[in-house]
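Note to self: the last two entries modelled the partners one at a time, which told us nothing about the interface. This time every component goes in together.
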Amino acid sequence: MSDVSVTVVTTGQPVERSVSSGTKAWELFADQPDVIAAYVDGEPRDLSCTLSDKARVEGIDIGSDAGRDILRHSTAHVLAQAVQELFPDARLGIGPPIADGFYYDFDVSQPFKPDDLARIETRMRKIIKEGQRFSRRSVSDDEARAELAEEPYKLELIGLKGAGSSDAAEGAAVEVGADGLTIYDNLKRDGSLAWKDLCRGPHLPTTKRIPAFTLTRSAAAYWRGSEKNKQLQRIYGTAWESKEAQDAYLERLEQAARRDHRRLGVELDLFSFPDEIGSGLAIFHPKGGVLRKVMEDYSRQRHVEAGYEFVNTPHITKGSLFETSGHLQWYADGMYPPMHVDEERDGEGKVTRAGQDYYLKPMNCPFHCLLYRSRGRSYRELPLRMFEFGSVYRYEKSGVIHGLTRVRGMTQDDSHIYCTEDQLQDEIRSLLTFVLGLLKDYGLDEFYLELSTRNDEKYVGTDEQWEQATDALRQAAEASGLDLVLDPGGAAFYAPKISVQARDAIGRTWQMSTIQVDFQSPQRFGLEYTSSDGSRREPYMIHRALFGSIERFIGVLTEHYAGAFPPWLAPVQVTAIPIAERHESYLAKVAADLATRGIRVDVDRSDDRMQKKIRNASLQKVPFVLIAGDRDVDDNAVSFRYRDGHQDNGVPAAEAVARIVEAVERRVQV
RNA sequence: GCCGGCGUGGCGCAAUUGGUAGCGCAUCCGACUUGUAAUCGGAAGGUUAGGGGUUCGAGUCCCCUCGCCGGCUCCA
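The predicted structure of the combined assembly is written out below.
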């Protein structure tokens, strides 16, 4: 038996090894139980693959990103096997790994019920216990078609194989690679076939190598992600390299649930959604109202400094405005239906006076275009920056409404900038700086940008216009130095956009600000200005919202801070707690001092015990708790208690006031 | 919009096979006045989301509407 030479890479160190011909990858890693697959010349492969001469082999650890993907993908296979054993009529969709888990789609006559998930999970554990081997074999297209004759969705994927991955469903790449087709057989200990699936692989060596998994939920999902297709039943699950890793993940989910803004909105008395008003329509309670006011006030101040002019426009308009803008053509479904007014009829019901359709506005831009057009404009007044907290109403589909982050009524911090071609680039760049600076002031400081380009099936305007607008945005985005991610086809019908994505305290990203360069609206509204040479020109228009909407931004910040807002945003900044009733008047004086400095302070005069008052202030996440008893009164001092429980006792009252005022003014977190 | 789940006082939860709606917190009243996350006692509060049906009897079963939750699709 001849030897072959392979290079084994462990922790970055390549080592040449000579092994006998026919050696399989697993033999190199026999002493490394965490290695479940290997890169062979850069390609992920099963450990059962045979190594060729000069191969470069690197083990894939089950706990690495690549390893977890393989683990989860293999677990998805076990799920599918269990489902087909329990529900023989179930047809297979696709089953890829996803962030933190996996799913598999099935076409079944009856949607899965919660009880079914429990049964399926039990069956999966049985399969795992059996230690079935994942065995790979190559097949021709015709062989695959013959073997998978009962699986119409797999056949469809085979048919798509050559068509380019963009046509296939997201996640389908794990089933069908660019190369030849492969089928994975699940073999029992005795070598008999338990199950098989079309799959590119690689997989774990055996089902026994799944250390921890759980099925999380079932839901419907459209085949290949299109509403036009049939809905399949999707089962989601998660799988981890150890029980501990899975527990940590489940704990993270619980932590995330605890900072859910919908829950905190109730607990902190910030806002609510009374059924009587309607879905997706929030009311802000006094504490949420203060938060909102502070956010708006600061935003207004920054807009004044940045040279914006403040405008105001109504909530409703005749439909013709949105015919001009094109919104009725493209987004009528997303608008509240019109109010038909002023129509008159005679006794026989015959219309004697035609009525008018009024719409709730879903956008502010057409109004701002009218504002621009209200008189002749000179190049001297450009760039003209109009700002408005504009309330808009969108008839979002019932299934998408979610707390404050997806609502039907919202207030945008909306702005439209009209400028010359020469000013466009500078304007976008300074806007980006402005946006990022503002978001940082609110405590978000990790960003990347997304560039959404034309949707070829939904747009107006010429190729040149789109190219120019997209280039302008791309250049500004690249100049920002932030990571830029492409979102092909993600633009609105009238303009490409840059969106600022912000990462929150637990690593989730949220789309915040958007900046769009629009050539269409100025044209549709016939906007122009007189240039220095006396000619009439069409201005460029930039749409931008920094918060997106105030509602959404409050939702995001609530989750980012888990309700523990920095002092400048906190609805109640200070709660003063007397040790006993006789200390109330002393604290009232300190509180009055704070109040004159603009601090939002409450003295807790309830007849609860002071321990209870501390608990209440903690639950309300008040940044500063000031406590005073005999010792403090005698020393004209107060004792600080911070949200993390740490103490700072005997602080002179004047210093305490100064400390609080400074924290608020500097907008720091405490 | 689609699929599934759910809907009990302000909030969080109970109510055996259909058999007279309970608890904790919050609220109100009273007592207590205490140095760092829940003092004690009492009172009040619900047409069980709304409507219809089955039944001697419905919070429990069936239908419709509304709303919420989890996904999918969508998001100007």
